[in-house]
Prior knowledge:
InterPro entries: GTP_cyclohydro_II, RibA, RibA-like_sf. This is GTP cyclohydrolase II. Pathway: Cofactor biosynthesis; riboflavin biosynthesis. Its EC number is 3.5.4.25. This protein folds into 2 domains: 242 residues, GTP cyclohydrolase II (Rossmann fold), CATH 3.40.50; 63 residues, no CATH class. The chain contains 16 helices and 10 strands. The strands form 2 sheets. The protein has an 8-stranded mixed β-sheet with strand order 1-10-9-7-8-4-3-2. Strands 5-6 form a two-stranded antiparallel ribbon. It is globular, with a radius of gyration of 23 Å. Bound molecules: guanosine-5'-triphosphate. Guanosine-5'-triphosphate binds next to helix 9, helix 10, helix 11 and helix 12.
Amino acid sequence: xxxxxxxxxxxxxxxxxxxxxxxxxxxxxxxxxxxxxxxxxxxxxxxxxxxxxxxxxxxxxxxxxxxxxxxxxxxxxxxxxxxxxxxxxxxxxxxxxxxxxxxxxxxxxxxxxxxxxxxxxxxxxxxxxxxxxxxxxxxxxxxxxxxxxxxxxxxxxxxxxxxxxxxxxxxxxxxxxxxxxxxxxxxxxxxxxxxxxxxxxxxxxxxxxxxxxxxxxxxxxxxxxxxxxxxxxxxxxxxxxxxxxxxxxxxxxxxxxxxxxxxxxxxxxxxxxxxxxxxxxxxxxxxxxxxxxxxxxxxxxxxxxxxxxxxxxxxxxxxxxxxxxxxxxxxxxxxxxxxxxxxxxxxxxxxxxxxxxxxxxxxxxxxxxxxxxxxxxxxxxxxxxxxxxxxxxxxxxxxxxxxxx
Length: 405
Ligand SMILES: Nc1nc2c(ncn2[C@@H]2O[C@H](COP(=O)(O)OP(=O)(O)OP(=O)(O)O)[C@@H](O)[C@H]2O)c(=O)[nH]1
């Protein structure tokens, strides 16, 4: 059988959805690098003959399970976090920043359940500088978009719920986007009722007020306004640039899929990210040059150039990205201001650029993104000649703060 992912092969039986809990890892990406994938292919015929579903491709490679002792390797140590004072980085060339931040608006948000049982909130943004749908992937209920929650003239409660401007969970028959209204209508004292898991009859439907609805005290953190000095840890943030090849078609030329997956895993884990997290997913494919140009760059790399040189040969900057949109989206998510964030990155430009022209966002700590293959001695993560070369060019030419030690 050719070395293709199982879902590319009509010869394999359809996959069954894994049940939550069976797969503790968190994975956006497919499993091109998963040793189990090869086992899957080798064993596909015998599995088919035993009529058992093959293991899902939607989970395995990059993210180790949270449950100790499972078969994929785990790296339970919290990620390395380094305090950052960007005002001290002034001797390095500063990234170019827009004088004024773009305006952004969260158009719609929806709950995305995952095969691991974790949920995330996908936000689609519009903005004043391009027509792309930039995204925020939010973990936890503490981070909310101001522009999403803002009232829009003439809208109905159904309009609000349809665009995702509701609190708590939707359920058939829910008629109000606002949880306080629901609780008032039910005559339920928010805290007292949650302990008993009481169900309150609301209009034509039932709402379990203990299920995903916020009490008044947690509703204040719902706005993102956690006071500095509170004992909650800083929210974890990743600014991620789109990479179709690394995130969708199992490319081992880069570590982008692994990084996206790892960011989600960290943010979904309440012990590592107790105040939640957000991945700002910018549609800046190929470091801003687009997919077609990136593929040309790959051909130039196969001809012996590195990723930096290939961009220049195509008359593009080595890195054509900007981060003003990310800054504006973080502010909209309540992650701006002095309280600060922890930023998952190795890229020094990103640390400074995301802070914005007037330090609208403050990066208090940088959390390093170490390739899983390095952390696990090659047992997990992306392994290829190409990715090794890519990583060394990131370190040597883009000055990424990444070392094997
Ligand atoms: N032009 C070009 N873009 C690439 C190449 N490989 C990956 N990319 C793009 O690079 C972006 C990711 O950039 P990276 O340099 O890997 O990482 P980073 O976002 O700068 O830094 P980290 O935050 O540490 O991950 C994505 O948009 C990818 O599509 C390549 O060889 N050429």
